[in-house]
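call fold target=ABC-type transport auxiliary lipoprotein component domain-containing protein
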Amino acid sequence: MRSDDYNRWLLPPDMMIERQLHKMLFPSETRSDGDGRLLRLGGTIYRFEFDRENRTAVLTVDYTVRILVDRRPAGSGSLSVTTQRTLTDDTPAAAAAAMSGCVEESVAAARKFLIETNAEAQKAK
């Protein structure tokens, strides 16, 4: 196995995405609306890599949300997000910037998905 500057990260990919999710969702929003409802977001990272031939960072995450009412399942949904960003040059900093852009775009899509899923669940009440 070969190591290079592109594969050295301070945090594992899942922790980086989790940190970005918390930054975008909290503290301005709460986990529950106070009526026993809870949205639980999960995800699986399928691709977190650099395509050197095409000079892009690529991130694929499948998100799932479960709606719980009084701790009982009341609905669910899923979303698959693939994001790509072009590497501006051949440096570790450019690679990190490109992947950060992928993470931000993916998290923004997850946030929108949560808002839409919650709105749909509220209508169904």
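return ok
The mean pLDDT is 82. The chain has one domain: 11-119.
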